[in-house]
């Protein structure tokens, strides 16, 4: 039986492990952390990613445990709507709405389906040899470094991927996108309807989850590396006078639960998503800004496409990995660029530019939800 080593037990790595298991591979998943409790808060799973999850047999469970993004759209800080859509509009167009759940819920669903003994936590991959597939683990207190032989190595080790840096040492690293982000899950049962509010350089998103919780996220343009003594107070300073329910959400937030991270992305696409027996996946391959909500969704796509192509080219794994690189580079490169472009729009602070931006969105919204939805066709219409 062919053996794959997956480096990283995030959403992309776990999806890849299950997709490869479904194709008859034995899988070892290496996670450097002591557990797989994910860093993050909420997650929007778009129709394209739901189809990827259907491939590994968990799509229906995710739908069942999620909240549906019902009425949604883009608003101004005073609460006026610039554009609006509904879950029914998305379902009619794509066959599924966008569903919302805690990132930890999706990770739990995926991890529960790993074969017994497949997951090794507290285990760091030091290197992966693309020529042989040999993965060297970091030495532990208990003894010398260990090696694992693999027919395929899937590097899902995130935006600061050591594997990517080793495979493509001269390639530009991810760059700061000009904004920092905050995320939190807040208990506030009265909130209904998702929205994203665009101000002058600042953005605040509201996504109701199941169980009376709300996923909140925000971005603002500041120099990289800044941190506040109290991040909730910083959010109140930036957004506390915006429309309801934003002030109430911030008031109900646990200051200790507010996460802050600078946003980075890879402006120059890699020449390939593989080298030898090693494939890159998710943020290790194509880190993007969060403005399309496609970071995790594209990782899930990567995973099922990779498993399908290496299975199809079973006698020639090199051909399968080459096909994976070609297909996923063509798919993800325009999505990365489009997300980056939308991120730049949200950073506009000049009053005239902001007024023109908002006016254009309001004018497009007058033509109905199909105009707003149509721009997502190239992203959401993907099928495995």
From TrEMBL:
Keywords (A to Z) from UniProt: Monooxygenase, Oxidoreductase
One family name in Pfam for this protein: FAD_binding_3
Domain FAD-binding: 3-339
Keyword Oxidoreductase: yes
GO MF, one annotated term: monooxygenase activity
Name of the protein described by the UniProt record: FAD-dependent monooxygenase
Native species: Microbispora maris
